């Protein structure tokens, strides 16, 4: 059976079988067999290819990696676990934001703490977008029942919708910035997700506790793991159902 996942990953990165072959040191016909016949490369080749196309080994070759090793790799993707969001060092936030080179993604209900604690956030995001970095911000629709429910669960009632509107006052400066998109979502979030290239902070949501008081995982993507990819997929699925906060301006 052809390996369509590998083929698609190569196409998205603009890579040919010859380019893959040169990168890992095999004959191009061998790469063709990996694609057309679904043969699994040796582990050293799988690791190199997965890193090159920025996909996990478990995604490209779901049956090739023993479960025990897959579990160990997933554990290695966890850099640090913080007991509460307030324990995440400010310099970690600054490093992740400042060093991002390809993509910044923020998925929250409000996330008001971020621009409040990082006064240069909006200016940095504008500069990142100007440098060609994709910036995606997903906020809860303040008029949605999901935002109201989360406010009730945190014990702050209608204040959650107000926090969303407050954070928009910060992000208003990004309204006409090319490369920055701000959307509303109406999703029940089980985690807030903050992605910076191949690193991520995942803030769990716990019933009865504000997000500042709940655990955060610092993840770093590894070619052989799929824990990071799980949260990336979750972010992308919310994005697919979201709508722009501001309607595009139509010239008269």
UniProtKB/TrEMBL annotation:
Q: Name one GO molecular function term.
A: DNA binding
For this protein, the record's Gene3D superfamilies field holds: Endonuclease Chain A (3.30.870.10), lambda repressor-like DNA-binding domains (1.10.260.40)
The organism's superkingdom is given as Bacteria
Annotated transmembrane regions: none
Output this protein's name. HTH cro/C1-type domain-containing protein
The organism named in the record is Micromonospora peucetia
Lineage, broadest ranks: Bacteria, Bacillati, Actinomycetota, Actinomycetes, Micromonosporales
